[in-house]
Amino acid sequence: MVMEKLKEMEEVVKAIKEKILNHNGYIRVITHHDTDGLSSGGILVKMLLRTNKLFHLTVVEHLSKEVIEKLAKENEVNKPLFIFADMGSGQIEEIMKNNFNAIILDHHPPKIKESFLGDIIQLNPHIFGIDGAKEITASGVCYLVAREFGYYDLSVLAIVGIIGDMQYSPLLGLNKFIVNEAREYRFVKIVNDIVYNIYDVEMYKAIAYCTKPYIPDLASESKAFKFLKEIGIDPNKKYLDESERKKLLSSILFRYPKIDNLTVNRFIIEHKVKDAFLMSEMLNAVGRNGLFAVGIGICLEDEECINIGKNILWKYKKNLINELKSVKLESLKNILYFEGKKGMIGIIASILADEKPVIGYHIEGDIAKFSARGNRDLVNRGLNLSVAMAVAEEFGGTGGGHNVASGAVVPKDKIMDFLKRVDEIIGEQLNSKKNQ
């Protein structure tokens, strides 16, 4: 089935390769600021460097009308080839309106389900009946183009994007194909391990600042240190052996029987950042802090960027734990919501999403920006946050994304009206599936 889908996409992938090779001017790459977007940017930068193309990359938080208008002015002067990664399918009408010569490499639901639109080629899994929320990421879509050039090593960056977009448990569809291809070429090794061994720091710090799983009772350095001492494990060890892992797991589960996700399949990748989970979190942290060039540098294995990324990650994780402790969840009938800080609301919402989806928001000037998160159980019950958040248009804003994770922007004086409407829509989604 997967190979059949790849075959269907082949015509589009080959056309994109030819479009890149035949373009004689410079190339403008526009990508998203999250882990998947930065991984996508890393793949495209390496691919364009190897093909000796002149290019300029920009990382943005949203492909807003303002961003498109700026690019349109650039288009009038220089006529570049635009490559939009992890965005573009939802804004394709604006891109067409401005007569861009463009390639769109996206995995969000497209507004137009066609691959060839004049000077635009769109590679989007949804056009081929593939779910971009769980079967392939944007970095995976970028990798499909890179592998057409023979750059199979760039699969490791697609794996980082898979982790960043929470599409690794379980691996499905093209995600599974990409990981298996990376294993075949020996670019990745998979080992089952405790989550705390990922971070390459003292064990008490790894436990104190871990958010997947988040254990409030151990979410401080002193408490985690004391806990490890009590069970006979050296808190300063950076890596636990098999017997210590078993001791730690049994001790945590004895005290906190509802905790899960204590073990993971670690992806050990051919990269200076050896662990794909660690790299995913580093990219998320630098992206959320606006250090986009550092994120691309990490993908390119720049030592200085990697060191900066590690430092930023731990500052980010400390701030995140403090923010988690201070979050005040409010409740409507079908959702929980909170006001938080920029760069943290999405991850906090994903940590707290359980029986109900969680929506976080922060205010910037006259607008409010929202991040909504659910989980697979809620999606299986009918949740589609992409549809729910798209209702922002009714309030003079914009919204969309995936069924399990989505975002929106509305005027700040419409916050409660918007949340109440989203609550209604989600209630309808969950109840309609229940009544089927």
Automatic annotation (TrEMBL):
MF GO annotations:
nucleic acid binding
Query: Which part of the chain is the DDH domain?
Result: 27-112
What SUPFAM superfamilies does its record include? DHH phosphoesterases (SSF64182)
**Gene3D superfamilies to which the protein is assigned, alphabetical:** 3.10.310.30, 3.90.1640.30
The record places domain DHHA1 at 339-427
Return the Pfam families for the record.
Answer: DHH, DHHA1
Q: Which PANTHER family match?
A: SINGLE-STRANDED-DNA-SPECIFIC EXONUCLEASE RECJ
Its name, as the record gives it, is: Phosphoesterase RecJ domain protein
